[in-house]
Amino acid sequence: xxxxxxxxxxxxxxxxxxxxxxxxxxxxxxxxxxxxxxxxxxxxxxxxxxxxxxxxxxxxxxxxxxxxxxxxxxxxxxxxxxxxxxxxxxxxxxxxxxxxxxxxxxxxxxxxxxxxxxxxxxxxxxxxxx
Length: 130
Fold this sequence. Notes:
5-stranded parallel sheet, globular, disordered N terminus, alpha/beta, Rossmann fold
């Protein structure tokens, strides 16, 4: 049996945490990112995301900006306490994200642009080999 880095998922793929309250968005991004070689853990809200973050090592997180109970901004702050070195990409259907929210993450991508800009942002924050 081949040993793998604890921060990577199956077959050495980079492990991401994907958090979005919309089922269809989670399903789309999960499928798209897995197709491009990532191992994706999914959560529908901040509480689930924090549980996954505490139980798993991650190489990046993708957070929806607007979610019930805990916003993406609040979740980003909490994730920084658990995994301070893990890059965070925020996604939103809105483009008017307040500067203080944007300053809490490493990259921002509009959901309206599809999967390619998210993939490019992840490659940018993880390094070109991602």
